[in-house]
Structures are given as structure tokens and as C-alpha cells.
């Protein structure tokens, strides 16, 4: 089994959250590059069960195959991926973030000098750099090294011609195809996405300078030896799934800020990590600093707007989203975010307008179409809502939208007196469903709506060991149960269910808004006592 180091630029968005572009890295073990890529893409698109559906767009993906042996200070040893993964996880749990910082912030391509041994290497380094690194041989860390393709050669002057047989741009002078010195097949031969990296190397060393020095020491005869090297910041994270620990990310960004207080991107990244920890005040402070350092950064304005939105400051969010739109008029994500904030303030017309603008700018913006459809549903504009939901279905979303948009279509068709056709359409969809897992939460909802599951069974299925997930699932369960009672003419039972949906406090679920809208309509239509 081979190991492949993947890096991808991914844009993620939720129908009640911002659009975020992030860089995601992972090691994937597979028999070949195609299988590894498929597994990595599945990981990127995976949806946490019961949580708000996320739309994932993979913008760019690059990868490199690992050298087949682990490089250590005593030489190469066989690569045992299962053992390495276990050890790396143990390191994460036992080593503080301060330890992981050691060696990260060294530009190894600039500081490395020819040295006979590690002590000579230490002596060669500038004092301010060497003194900050760990030199204890008994404390060693796992490092990921990406050996990058060399930059293209400078174009010849107009009166010169390139020498015959010179390497093409971006290729080493030797071994431009076929086997490398380490038995690795040229990545471009079978996997054209691997154009930014040559190979990846796993090294156990006391710091990053030693790790890079070891690679160049043990690969002196390979054309790759002198290539630029990138050391991945998450040198201790090795596995097939999971997100980087935000605490480690915060520590790493803080170190970067200490070294360069004018680094706007470090403030932005630290703000994002704080958002992940729901430290919205801290996130707003970091995003504000990023905006001060780089006033034309629409993404920082957008991110600060999202943090303010999550804190409950809708006016501040609307202002920041508006600033992002001023900087980038075609910023569909900011239009959508502003619409969500306006909806939270009760400005439904403004929300519909912003959702519409987001759709105009990006016709494939599933979150905006689905959210506008739900807003129209809550306003009892069922035909317009149906148009939006059908539009989402035509886009064939690969997230949970594929499920929940079908449930909304079912609700509308039953309201329009098309119960039999609604059941048939939903059952056909469920029988061929490819989203999610068999018998998961969304499937339970579909079964309930189609009459294959009782209300008590649906409520039992809503239980979850994660409190936020459970609250959201009960919110949805009571909304759909209330809707069925309403369609059956039992307004009292419907109102009770809608009230229970709202009582969950799961305001980020669209079922919450719809339950509130139904309850409001029931109260308005009930005769005065």
C-alpha cells in the first residue's frame, strides 16, 4: 500500500453560514493514485450526520507520492502507516502546542548550509534561529516534507537560444520522465494533478532544519535533492480523516504574528480558528486587525461579518457584508450572508432580494436557492417556493440539500392536494438515493413523510449523543410531525409540535423558522376567544 500526501483548495458554504475557502491537507493510503484521490475527495465532501448540510467545491488539488521509507537520523526504516498514524495521534495528545512550534518557522531553503553532521548544522545556523530550535535527540517529531517542482528557468534573452536538450520549464535537468532515483513513477505520467510537487517525505527529526538537512544528506545524487522544500505546518498530524486542532492552529498563527506583526493572513487564519472554537469576540478582533492591515481584503470583511452574525450582531454583520460587496461587487457569498442577517432582523423582503442577487451572480448557488425557497414557503408563496426547490434539484446537489429539498417539495405538493403524487415522487427518490448513508437521519425523515415510519419512531431516531445535533434533529422532527398533523386537520396537535420545535432553540436549522412561521399563522387564523 502506498501513501499519498494531498493538498486541496476547497470552498465550503452552508445555507446558514459563510462561504469559506480553505486549504486542506491529508495523507491517504491506497494501492494507487486514482484510488487515493477518490478517497481524499470523499473525505473532503463528507457530511457530518445530523448537522447543517455543507456544499463543497474543490478548486484545486495537488498531491505527491511518499518515499516508501521513513527517514530518521539513523537512516531509512520501513514505512508502517498504521504505526505512524498511531504514534502521531499519541504525539498530538501528549505534546504541547509550544513543542510543535519548534522549527516550524525556519526557511530551510535559505538557512541550510553544507554540514558534516548535526552539530555542524547547528553551528552553521544564525544564533537567533538555532537557539529557538529543539536540539535534544530524545525529543523527535514527525515532519512532512513536500519536495516541490523547481521554478521554471528564466526565459533566454532575445539574442540567445536555449541549449539543445535543455530541460523543459518546471522539469529537473535529469529524470524528466519514468523512474526517479527512489523508484517513484513520474507523477505527471498517470496523475496530471501532481504538477506542484515531486514527492513527499516523512522524516523523524528533532526540528525542521534537521529534517530538511537529512533529506538532502540522504538524497545527494537525486535531481530532487536540491529542489525547494516545504515543511507542512501540521507535521504531527498524520491520518486519513479529521480536522486540524484549532488550538494548534491558534498557537501556530500566534507564532507567525510574533515574527511578523504585519502578516494580515496570520490574523485572518487565527480568527478562523477562533471562530471554530466559537470565540467570536476573539475572531472579530483578529479579523479587524486583518482588515486594518489589508483594507482591500473583501474576505476579511466577510469573515468578520460572519463572526458578528454568529454573535448576534446583525447590524454589524450587514455592514461588513456590505463592505465586502463594495470591494467585490460580484461576491455572491457576501450577498447571501447579508440576506441571512436581514432575515434574522425580520427584513424578509431584503433577504429575498439578497438571495436573488446571490443566485444572479452564481446560478449554481444551492444554499441561496434553497434558503429563498424556504423563505417563500414560510411566507406561504408555495408556487414560487416550488420553483426554487425544483431549481435546486436540477443542480443535483451532492450534500444533504438533495434530501431536504425533496422533503420541501413533498410538503408543497401535499398542500396543493397532490398527496398521492407527492408520496410516489418521494418514494422513488428514496429508493435510488445516493446521498448520505442508508438508514441515516435524513432517510428517517423521508420514511416518516412517506408513511413508512411512525411519529414515535421518528422522535426516537432524533436522539443523538451530541447535544447540538440532537437539538437540531428534534427541531426538524417536530416541524415535519407538526406539518403532517396540520395537513390532517389537527391544528391543536400541529401547534403543539411547532411549539416543541421552537423550544429546541436550534435557530440555525431552517425547520425552526418554518415552525415559527406555521405557529404564527395558526395563531392569526384562530378565532378570538
The gist of it:
The chain is α+β, with helices and mostly antiparallel strands and 529 residues long.
Topology, element by element:
Blueprint: E1 2-14, E2 19-30, H1 33-45, E3 54-65, E4 69-72, E5 75-78, H2 81-94, H3 97-101, H4 108-111, H5 118-124, H6 127-130, E6 141-148, H7 187-190, E7 197-205, H8 208-218, E8 229-231, H9 246-259, H10 264-276, H11 280-293, H12 298-311, H13 314-327, H14 332-344, H15 348-361, H16 366-378, H17 382-394, H18 401-415, H19 419-431, H20 441-449, H21 455-461, H22 467-487, H23 491-503, H24 510-525
Antiparallel strand pairs: 1-2, 1-3, 4-5, 6-7, 6-8
Helix pairs in contact: 9-10, 10-11, 11-12, 12-13, 12-14, 13-14, 14-15, 15-16, 16-17, 16-18, 16-24, 17-18, 18-19, 18-20, 19-20, 20-21, 20-22, 22-23, 22-24, 23-24
Low-confidence stretches: 99-103, 154-195, 234-243
Output mean pLDDT: 79
Q: How far apart, in Å, are the first and last alpha carbons?
A: 74 Å
The profile of the biggest β sheet is: 3 strands, antiparallel
Provide the gyration radius in Å. Answer: 27 Å
Broad structural category: alpha+beta
| Morphology call | elongated
Beta strand count:
8
Separate helix tally: 24
Amino acid at each position: 500500500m502506498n501513501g499519498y500526501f494531498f493538498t486541496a483548495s476547497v470552498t465550503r458554504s452552508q445555507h446558514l453560514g459563510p462561504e469559506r475557502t480553505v486549504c486542506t491537507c491529508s495523507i491517504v493510503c491506497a494501492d494507487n493514485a486514482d484510488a487515493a484521490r477518490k478517497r481524499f475527495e470523499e473525505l473532503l465532501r463528507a457530511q457530518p450526520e445530523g448537522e447543517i448540510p455543507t456544499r463543497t467545491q474543490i478548486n484545486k488539488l495537488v498531491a505527491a507520492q511518499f518515499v516508501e521509507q521513513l527517514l530518521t537520523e539513523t537512516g531509512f526504516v520501513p514505512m508502517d502507516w498504521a504505526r505512524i498514524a498511531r504514534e502521531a495521534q499519541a504525539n498530538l495528545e501528549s505534546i504541547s502546542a509550544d513543542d510543535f512550534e519548534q522549527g516550524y518557522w525556519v526557511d530551510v531553503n535559505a538557512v541550510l548550509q553544507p554540514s558534516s553532521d548535526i552539530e555542524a548544522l547547528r553551528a552553521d545556523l544564525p544564533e537567533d534561529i538555532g537557539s529557538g530550535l529543539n536540539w535534544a535527540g530524545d525529543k523527535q517529531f514527525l515532519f512532512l516534507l513536500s519536495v516541490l517542482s523547481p521554478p521554471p528557468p528564466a526565459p533566454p534573452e532575445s539574442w540567445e537560444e536555449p541549449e539543445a536538450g535543455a530541460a523543459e520549464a518546471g522539469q529537473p535537468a535529469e529524470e524528466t520522465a519514468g523512474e526517479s532515483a527512489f523508484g517513484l513513477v513520474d507523477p505527471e505520467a498517470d496523475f496530471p494533478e501532481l504538477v506542484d510537487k515531486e514527492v513527499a517525505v516523512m522524516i523523524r527529526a528533532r526540528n525542521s532544519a534537521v529534517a530538511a538537512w537529512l533529506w538532502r544528506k540522504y538524497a545527494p545524487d537525486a535531481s530532487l535533492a536540491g529542489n525547494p522544500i516545504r515543511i507542512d505546518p501540521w507535521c504531527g498530524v498524520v491520518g486519513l480523516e479529521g480536522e486540524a486542532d484549532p488550538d494548534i492552529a491558534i498557537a501556530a498563527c500566534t507564532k507567525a504574528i510574533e515574527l511578523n506583526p504585519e502578516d494580515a493572513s496570520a490574523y485572518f487564519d487565527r480568527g478562523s480558528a477562533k471562530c471554530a472554537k466559537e470565540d467570536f469576540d476573539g475572531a472579530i478582533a483578529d479579523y479587524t486587525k486583518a482588515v486594518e492591515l489589508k483594507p482591500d481584503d473583501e474576505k476579511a470583511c466577510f469573515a468578520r461579518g460572519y463572526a458578528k452574525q454568529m454573535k448576534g450582531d446583525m447590524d454589524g454583520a450587514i455592514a461588513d457584508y456590505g463592505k465586502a460587496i463594495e470591494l467585490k461587487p460580484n461576491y455572491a457569498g457576501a450577498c447571501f450572508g447579508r440576506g441571512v442577517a436581514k432575515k434574522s432582523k425580520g427584513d424578509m423582503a431584503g433577504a429575498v432580494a439578497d438571495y436573488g442577487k446571490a443566485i444572479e451572480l452564481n446560478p449554481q448557488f444551492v444554499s441561496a436557492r434553497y434558503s429563498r425557497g424556504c423563505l417563500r414557503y414560510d411566507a406561504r408563496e408555495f408556487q414560487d417556493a416550488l420553483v426554487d426547490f425544483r431549481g435546486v434539484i436540477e443542480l443535483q446537489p451532492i450534500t444533504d440539500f438533495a434530501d431536504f429539498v425533496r422533503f420541501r417539495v413533498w410538503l408543497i405538493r401535499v398542500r396543493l392536494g397532490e398527496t398521492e403524487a407527492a408520496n410516489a415522487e418521494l418514494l422513488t427518490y428514496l429508493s435510488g438515493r445516493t446521498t448520505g448513508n442508508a438508514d441515516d437521519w435524513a432517510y428517517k425523515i423521508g420514511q416518516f413523510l412517506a408513511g413508512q415510519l411512525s411519529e414515535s419512531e421518528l422522535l426516537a431516531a432524533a436522539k443523538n449523543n451530541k447535544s447540538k445535533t440532537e437539538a437540531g434533529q428534534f427541531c426538524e422532527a417536530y416541524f415535519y410531525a407538526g406539518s403532517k398533523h396540520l395537513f390532517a386537520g389537527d391544528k391543536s396537535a400541529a401547534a403543539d409540535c411547532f411549539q416543541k420545535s421552537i423550544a429546541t432553540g436550534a435557530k440555525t436549522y431552517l425547520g425552526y423558522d418554518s415552525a415559527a412561521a406555521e405557529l404564527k399563522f395558526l395563531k392569526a387564523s384562530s378565532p378570538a376567544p
